[in-house]
Amino acid sequence: MTDVWMTAALWVGLALVATLLSIWFRVATALSEIVVGTVAQLIIGAVAGVAALGAQEPWIRFLSGTGAIVLTFLAGAELDPAVFRARWKEATVIGLVAFFAPFLGCAAVACHVLGWDPRAGWLAGVALSTTSVAVVYAVMLELGFNRTDFGKAVLAACFINDLGTVIALGLIFSPFTFRTGVFVGSSVVVFAVIPFLTPWFFRRYGNRPSELEAKYLLLLLFGMGALAAWADSEAVLPAYLIGMVLAGTVGKDHVLVRRLRTLTFGLLTPFYFIRAGSFVSVPALIAAPVTFLILLGAKVVSKCVGVYPATRAFRYECRQGVYTTLLMSTGLTFGTISALFGLTHNVITQSQYSYLVAAVVASAVIPTLIANAFFIPYDLLPKRTGVTTQGTAPAGSRKIAAVAAADGGSVPSES
Predict the structure, then answer these.
(1) What is the C-alpha to C-alpha distance for residues 336 and 359, in angstroms, rounded to an integer?
(2) What pTM was estimated for this model as a whole?
(3) Measured distance CA(242)–CA(77) in Å, rounded
């Protein structure tokens, strides 16, 4: 057990360093964890060997996978059903366009410009089609857009976008067999039952020190994740859908959500993001930086070409449309999940994985910095102390960091 505790101490130490870096540089902890994982693997691998970091240890893989599943569930649980019902046309159109434009555009670039094989190209399309709900929500919360119809519509569009990504990942890279039919049928039954079972179960047995709610949700996520893996699908697919189905129950219980975040971001997701970063090959990026730039450009350009006209179709003003488009161009959690899925299932090589993760991380930072520096629609902000609604704002508000307050890639609560 000595080796296990030493490895655990190393990984938690890396997570602590990543958190301090995120505070100092005002970026999402998930971003800093990926970077720390990359640097740690580079240094430790050079000194003590490639396997010294322990990224392939079974228990680290378990914690990493659990982090991805629970994080995906929390993202789905943040969807506000009332908001979606009110703005469903707008959110659906913008969200679908934000998915299909980069999905098809980036896949075409990967296959025909970079020369990747078709499966790797489609995986690139999936990984680069995402929108980071964590980053977008952090920006909305920081400025106050989360209380406006504009902000709520953008957030709903983000969920549609990521739902398309998760479904595409499962459908394209999972063969449709008898097991798939069992998985789909079982999922329909579970999704139909849990919206009624969960509130009753929580009222009857919840609010106890034993944290029954967390155990119930973990059982649900692990069970459906096991069924998805048995059907050769991806465990994050049912996790995201379960989160959306329970958004009206779990998502409204801010105390429960905060407790789940403590577990997720305090222990689980650092293992996921550091492990994801450890697979990035720095020599590969140095050898071919153009590939990374092409993928990043393909994502941002395709998002802009698709999303901006869609916003204008719903009568967004120019500034609002550009701001929405740039926020929808971000990516983080689902992009890295998709890329890591491709690497572990031999769909892409480690070099291709490195290019994709680098492009995903860059897309989480660059578009939001540009959006908040030049295109904030101040006229849509709610009236509050320190912010005007006449198209101007105090100097301090102009300096808001794009991903500030994004706690480890989490989706903050309004409570």
Answers:
(1) 10
(2) 0.77
(3) 8
